[in-house]
Specification:
With 553 residues, this protein is an alpha+beta fold. The chain contains 16 helices and 17 strands. A hairpin with a 3-residue loop joins strand 16 and strand 17.
Length: 553
Amino acid sequence: MTKKIFRSIFAVALTVFLCSVVVIMGALYGYYSSNQMKLLGSQVELASQGVELAGVDYLKSLTADDYRVTLIDSDGSVEFDSAADSAQMENHLERKEIKDALKNGEGQATRYSSTLMERQLYSAKRLSDGRVLRLSCSQYTWWTLFVGMLEPVVAVFFAAVGLSLFLAFRLSKRIVEPLNKMDFDGENPPEGYYEELSPLVSRIESQKEELKYKEAELKRRKDEFNAATKKMTEGLVLLNEKGKILSINDSASKLLSISSYCVGKDILLLNNSFEMQELIGKAKEGRHCELIVPLDDADYEVTASPVMTDGKVTAIALLIVDITEREKAEQMRREFTANVSHELKTPLQTISGCAELMQNGLIKPEDVEKFGERIYSESKRMITLVEDIIGLSRLDDGTVDTNKEPVNVKETVSTVIDILKDSAQRKNVTVSLSGDDVTINTVKRLLSEVVYNLCDNAVKYNKDGGRVDITIKEQPDFVSVTVADTGIGIPGSAINRVFERFYRVDKSHSKEVGGTGLGLSIVKHAVKLLGGDVSLESKENKGTSVTVTLPKI
């Protein structure tokens, strides 16, 4: 502490001295430059009088080594120059001091001379015949001024350093000595040697008590955490920001086939699979991610959740779940869906064609209207079912085109509303659109499919004379699309199941309106592929509100 105070005092004193020297040098530099320009103006005044009396010959007779003399004609051409061949010099009409002299009679300027390769002061005066006489000289530099004052500056510098060292040493020792004599670990620390230290002593005592309490609370929570995680069937691993294990429960040790004594070791040293490297890498970047990691002929779903503090990753939580059986069942379901879709599509299209023939009068008139309409209606409904199954299967398999592009959300919703206009009119349902006009980077076809399914459901399951209100809201990082209707609603017991495949709240009503039970499942999977989220609120006989949240990028 003494060294820090010593260095601080010494640094402050030395900094003040150096700043003072710089300020003084700056002031002197400005003063000398100003005087130099005034002297140059006086010299050009005297020289102009000589030229007025004796002409150019007067300039040739001058032996002023400190000044450069130039005579410029009114058109800017150089007539005479004491330092260079006037015939080789460029036109000076655009030089500031020349322009000012021609206009006002006198002109001054400061700039770098490419001929002499140094910074010059220029002073010019217009003669009675319109020509301009200019004198220039080298401007004083910082270095020139410093060299001229070097001896007194060095003497003052060493004196200042010595005095700063002495004062810094004495002051730091005087400040720290009473503090070193204080006993903060005792039960009753003595009053400070400085009266100002009394609040500090009191605060330290208060913080000591607070630390004891927090230590006990931390131990209690740790015991509770260990007890809870020990009973978990899922594996739980806590890592620090560098990927080293802070805590691991018994289930994780068994699933990963590692010892519970691995605390403090890098997780990648224990499991260096590509999947684990990718998972930990994304988590360190602050991204929540899930991966299927195959281990010992089994599949595990490993979820990595970064713990953020002040925008930085301070810890990583790994949740490990054995999903071997679930993955097998899911694979079987996907294969079943694909096979059923393939087998049913061709005959259903045939049924649809027969129904069209009946409607066109190619069947007996007495059978056409009733029989044909029913077959055609059922075939169209089943074809829709097949198409929904195929679409859902593609979402599951990840075979859909996920190339993103700029998409105007409001325009996309408006297009869907136009498509459903006839359906809404038949149901006497009013559809309205409001909210922000925003463009996001997403998959346009999937967005259209999501909005279509939500709006189609809102119209189908609405009441006669009902409403469908679509609202678009823009947030800093995402956009939400809410589809709210005044329809039949969903019972509370069914809300958690409506996103399941083939689940229908009211099967008879769904059949009546042509529902397949896949619309919300398609919405859920499509939104997930788009990196968004979907939520639903509903009250029976009052209506349903579905909100889709999508990232802007």
